[in-house]
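Page 47, continued from p. 46.
Same chain as before, 314 aa.
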Amino acid sequence: MNLEEETRKGYTISKEMKKVWAVELQLLNKLFEVCDKYNLRVFADGGTLLGVVREKGYIPWDDDIDMVLLRPDYDRLLEVAPKEFKYPFFFQNGNTDRFAEGLTKIRMEGTSGVLEHDIFRNCHQGIFIDVFPYDAVPDDTEKLDRLMRESGRKIQILRDYYRTSYSIFHPLRSWKRYKNYRYVESKGHANCFKEYEDMFRQFHVEDNEYVSCLAFQYDLEHFKRPRKWYDETVYLPFEDIMMPCPGAYHEILELQYGDYMTPAKAPSYHGGFYALDADRPYEEVIEEYKKAHKWDNWKHRRDLILNLLHLRNG
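Result:
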């Protein structure tokens, strides 16, 4: 990839962002290498798929890569990941890090991909690409509603387990978070996360007509697709590589974006970055932030300690 600053469609892409893109392409190529080795089918999704079709590369203002696998291939990827993703790659999910999300992030050591809302999270925060599982959508509306409700409850319990602050101004919310923390402590994080993922595995992709990224729990209407749309893989140019895409990419993009060939800048699903840097390790960036915000950090820790003492004594 050319790392020089350039302008695409009136939007300037800096050298720094080009370096970030280059790191993401390294991560992507590693994913392709592993998927090819184990005959796993992986597809571009979301803004990445849109970039492939409309731009033949990154959308100029985009800052990440989204890939999907159907649940059987996703689970196989989880199985082989420990032996395939070694330094400088980090395969991040609820089994490998303090990370309570229903997806995987493949991260690069020695870099920073720190999201604004993650600045206090004690987990790996290098530059990443997102890898989502697509699960079967049960035909029975009642079963689907129950699945979304119960899986949402279970992942919230895990998020509360890793939450590092409580508020004296919201005692009920703090009490619920503390109860969730104690629940995970007693049951074990690995068991809780497996229970969460097993909820999606109970409905088999091959037995259902539709699939969706149910673990994302963001926008089922625009992410629910016929399974047959993923029967065929086509390879289309993306920057200087060939990207695997679902054969029905037109139908997918039309469902998600409508008139997808007309550019429209939209916010990222994961929110903004505090730091996105290919040359600085995230540990250094976070430590610098904490030093510059000592008062905020002190209040953060004070509230945590006071509320834990209050909840235990209450």
